[in-house]
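Summary for the steering committee. The consortium agreed at its last meeting that each partner would contribute one worked example illustrating the joint modelling workflow. Our contribution is presented below. We chose a case with several input lines so that the handling of multiple components could be demonstrated. No manual editing was applied between input and output; the record is shown as generated.
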Amino acid sequence: MELVKCNGLYKDYGFKKVLKDINITIPKGRIVGLLGSNGSGKTTLIKLMNDLITPTKGEVLINGKKPGVNSKKIISYLPERTYLNMDMKVSEILEYFSDFYSDFDTQKAIKLLKKLNISTTDRLKTMSKGTKEKVQLVLVMSRKADLYILDEPIGGVDPAARDYILDTILTNFNKDASIIISTHLISDIERILDDVIFISNGEIVLYEEADKLRKKEKKSIDAIFREMFKC
Amino acid sequence: MLSKLLKYDFKSLAKSLVPFYGLVILLGLLVRISGIVKEHFPVTSFINGMMLMFFIMLIVAILFYTFFVSIRRFYRNVLKDEGYLTNTLPVKRSNIILSQTITSFVFSVISTMVMIVALLVAFYTKGSLGEIFGFINKLFIAMEIEPWVGYLYTIMTMITGYMSYVLIFYLALILGHQRYSNKIVYSIVYGLVIYGVLQVLSLICVGLTIVIDPNLIDVMSNAYATFKDMASLFISSGILSILIPIGCYFLSCKFINTKLNLE
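What follows is the complete predicted structure of the assembly.
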């Protein structure tokens, strides 16, 4: 069963065409890397899936339906920015997520935060950018969602913490669920990907299984990407 | 889910407003104390004057600050970075706007009450309340209006007026944020356009009322016209003042549902 389906999707920002005729289908149980250089349209595509912007033309379907209240119940979304109220304490944010998401596991979140040495009494405004991103990732991965959409989950953290974060993602998602990870730090995440989507100038230029692609090209995904998007 | 939204909107506004309420009442108390001290030690009248000045400034600012805080909450929570969370919660967007509107209204009532309490703390003397209400009642009677009707109409006008301004700001911000640049400038422009449209609607409303009740032209030129004489105008403007916030609410819901632009 397809979890995400984009049919002839276009998005313009004024005169700028950001996405052009996107047609993709993402089934259940896959980890998909949405890979592209800066400004290629990754975040725009993710925002369309999350109903944060509306398409100029075409449609996005989540579980066969247009994005709305029902799709938000099953999508756990990590944006590329800090989206939490800075005046809140971690404990208040946990309560917030628990109130709004019936699939949120507070105990799991507390356990993950403890591992990262983040106290639930800390206020977000006292934290570094990287720590805030870790808190957000913990919140997102503590839901038992059907679809996790992670926009640049490792972009703001130090290289030493990246493996920990990727392991957190891998060990904390529901096995029937799918994950879409958008990033340009391909070498760090390619080991966990089932499928890769290359996006360039708002167009999908490649969508293939990661292993098949590596075998076919006899290179890593990172090397293929560098070759394909050489400046 | 509306109750959960209300819970967090109340918490957020309370964080900004409760310390301000405390300050207003404290200053009211200081005005009272410094007033008593001044009677015994006239040399302290300067302190009393300063206290009084700050107190009056806070009393004037309290409703503006309440309005500002609730608009800022909407802007940050729905249209800026926090909007990435708010707009991906499994709740209807109409409930998000409704919750913020209700919260803003409730805090405007609380602010008004705090203002009255602070004024009483600072200036209350035995019989002063009776004098104030007696004066207002006389005013209503002079206008040939039952005092309770007068109070009801005044309160209703204040409520609908406040709600209209809150929802006009929400609508203008939502429309302005559909643009791809200069969002604040466009929000101001849309706000002015909406205000202009509402002024035209008010004029049309007066025109329609005159068509229905032609005597109104003579009444309006009469300086001694009473509430009773102008009842048709008060009723039509009352209905319009209820329809304006309702209209702004539905338009806000429509635009945020179909054209949200968190780019």
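Chain B touches chain A through 26 residues (CB under 8 Å). The mean pLDDT of chain B is 90.
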